[in-house]
């Protein structure tokens, strides 16, 4: 069996790993030999979250280890272990119910992650023995790693053409069909907004579409914002705002990873993945403030700000998504800084025109410790997107409710009768934390899959 990094098959050399929390520590401690109790006391170990201690035998060799956790259902509670423990093989001591066991395994895998394409990791992680079936957890881990790797890869090696290549490879593995509309063909095939945003780059803008599943199954469309680098366009970002804009395709990374996960687990859906992939560049043909562009939906859009480009490319993709008459549309986008101001970096902002869809996703997030927060589609704020010369403006002079107005803009391009949810996701860790190294991050991806699995396969 080909196991992910940090996992091993059963081994006679594996040492027991105990997992405790503060509430259960005293009872566990009293069940240990006197020498072990003395060792724990000498090191002040009390089961605090994020702690780890190797316990020696009489000869001073490692005989076991213990880690402290908080929430047993939170995968990140275990993520410190692979690098807090010596890089050898460990096996879980004791019995675990299904959900805590899945959390341990996923947290271990996330804790092992290092982006090593350009720089080798300083050491190998400890390994955890896998007994029994772990395919579902490994598919979950693979999806999270896919997001991280895509977001972490610099634009030089992850432009629109590379995103297309990733989609092609996934389609080939899972027997899916791929279609790509690129360059000036976007105009002739009525994707004018995608073309307008991406036309200034030397890399052709494109719409990537992957189709998979049985035609008898219900249709699901997943859309992801694929701005592979965002200069801000002619409304150029300052240096600190542009520094990490390789991550502006984080929505596409989430959508691609979720689609791949659905195919790998063979959910009974008829799936379409749509990724409008562009680079928002500066050049002689760059989109200019004040221009009016067309959209697939037939609405005219005045460009108030070229740095509000994500919603512009998503408009064409969402309009196209509606043409498939789907049961559900999900979109993921690193859309606004306003969402981060409102909710911080760890809590993606959820918008939906369907209360049942929103609640199912929120409930899955709570259950899996993969949180998100619902925000209102407050339609009186449409006044902030008023244009005097076009049907709608892509932004406006007001700084109020920036995340809400961006979601309202997207909603305008979704057919009213189609359930739709939009996630304004950061896709990034600003600093290292156990299991969350600085860089790309999958957020509310696991809860999205659980919501879809319950809806389509439950």
UniProtKB/TrEMBL annotation:
MF term (GO), any: manganese ion binding
PROSITE patterns assigned to the protein according to its UniProt record, in alphabetical order: CYTOSOL_AP
Origin: domain of life: Bacteria
Domain Cytosol aminopeptidase: 305-312
Gene Ontology terms: biological process: proteolysis
GO cellular component, one term: cytoplasm
Keywords: Aminopeptidase, Hydrolase, Manganese, Protease
UniProt xrefs under Pfam families: Peptidase_M17, Peptidase_M17_N_1
Family note: Belongs to the peptidase M17 family.
PANTHER family, A to Z: LEUCINE AMINOPEPTIDASE-RELATED (PTHR11963), PEPTIDASE B (PTHR11963:SF20)
Protein name (record): Cytosol aminopeptidase
